[in-house]
Amino acid sequence: MSRSKVEGAEDLVEALAKEVDGTRINIPFEVDVDGNSSDEGEEAVDGEGGDGGEKSKKKKKKKKKSKSKKTPVIKPNQGRIPEEIPPPPPESPEATSKWDKEIVKGTKTYNLPAWGLLDDRARPILNIFRTPSCKKIELITPRLRLRQCEVGDLTGVRRIKMEPIVQKTQLYGSPSISDIKDSFLNRYIRSRDEYIFAITALNPSQLKVQDPGHVRISNRISNGEGYLGNIALSLTYPSASPSFLPTKGKIYTQPTFERTHNAKLEGKLFYEIHPQLWGQGIMSEAFEEVLRFGMEEVGCDSIASDPTTGNEASIHLCTKNGLTFSHTTNNMYNKPQLFHRITKEEWWKRNRPDKGVEDRWGGKEVCRWCMNFRLAPPTIQCKYCQWAKYCSRECQKADWVRNGGHQSECDLEEAP
């Protein structure tokens, strides 16, 4: 959904378990720049003699080893920006009348805590704020669908975070069950400065669920259905940077790459996946696409990841995607973290070498509630003002009934 600065978000940043991707991360294939073989060996060649046609043996020749430098072949990111989602059809007069009765002065408002409303009894309220448009931001890879997290993912979250194999490299150690619901799932469901995607399979039967080994019985999975893990892009801004949230009196537009560059907007990746799915390149596939999304669509000026010391699989996941080591820090849990980072220019040069940086969504009018820049420009306008626009009636209502939302900032003078 929408994004803003959330203090302390970095404290919950996830580190990838030591073999979380499990691919052992293939070393880039090397080729000789000149196209010559680097194999050494001897070769005997039979030929015709000049006098009398007798066969003779040519001397064995030894191929010289090419002194050409070898260079890794970089596979460019194959993801792409999707087509813009068209606007909804015009509503009927009856629908307009219905919504007008729900969006009036004095309508009851609800407080929405920073981490969301997750109690089952509060689901009806939560669903007001998690509109259909909020759920439409998803990423597709050859095998995966990265969708928004849901309340029903709690069991899947617990299976991973409560597993000792995973906890070995978790920054926060071994969280309790209540911690997982209060500190993690709340954040996954509704965070205002992060895109947190649940990793799911397009075709669960294509994924191999490995023998559980030492995985606790309560944490085991038997198939590749449902929540398999998560990967997130957490957005951070310098304290002096201007807010990218909608402001009173102004039609909201998606920040341009120029604005995000001036604000030094940085994304940070954190991720985890169930240990019975390690070794299939699943996290590598998700990592590459979220990195693309952050650079090519969100407009991050740089993106970083900070695996813990000794987490070789995660470190290699960074380096094979072009992130280079930046610095080491000791976090609040006294665990050294190795920061790796890639800038916008570096990513574009590596993955889009034939074209310059292109800003697909920057500057377009966007719904001021869901801020989903992939949707067509909003067609719903507040009847009391000229500047509050939404992609759907559901988003308009969510902003209207939120405590401190548009109902409190609108002048409530019906437009002519």
Give the helix/strand layout:
Blueprint: E1 30-32, E2 42-43, E3 46-48, E4 55-57, E5 61-62, E6 70-72, H1 93-102, H2 123-129, E7 139-140, E8 144-148, H3 154-161, H4 164-167, H5 177-189, E9 194-201, E10 229-236, H6 257-262, E11 266-273, H7 282-298, E12 302-305, H8 312-319, E13 324-330, E14 336-343, H9 344-351, E15 380-381, E16 389-390, H10 393-401, H11 406-409
Helix pairs in contact: 3-5
Could you characterize what this model shows?
There is one protein chain. It contains 11 helices and 16 strands. The strands form 5 sheets. It has an 8-stranded mixed beta sheet with strand order 7-8-9-10-11-12-14-13, with helices on both faces. Strands 1-6 form a two-stranded antiparallel ribbon. Helix 3 crosses helix 5.
Q: Major sheet: order of its strands?
A: 7-8-9-10-11-12-14-13
How does the overall form come out from the CA principal axes? globular
Taken in chain order, the helices and strands follow as: EEEEEEHHEEHHHEEHEHEHEEHEEHH
Q: Structural class, from helix and strand content? A: alpha+beta
Major sheet size, sense and barrel closure: 8 strands, mixed
Q: Count every helix, treating DSSP H or I runs of 4 or more residues as helices.
A: 11
Helix coverage percent: 10-25%
Please tell me how large the radius of gyration is. Answer: 27 Å
Residues in β-strands, percent: 15-25%
- Low-confidence segments: 1-59, 114-118
Provide the residue-averaged pLDDT.
Answer: 78
Number of strands: 16
Distance between the termini: 31 Å
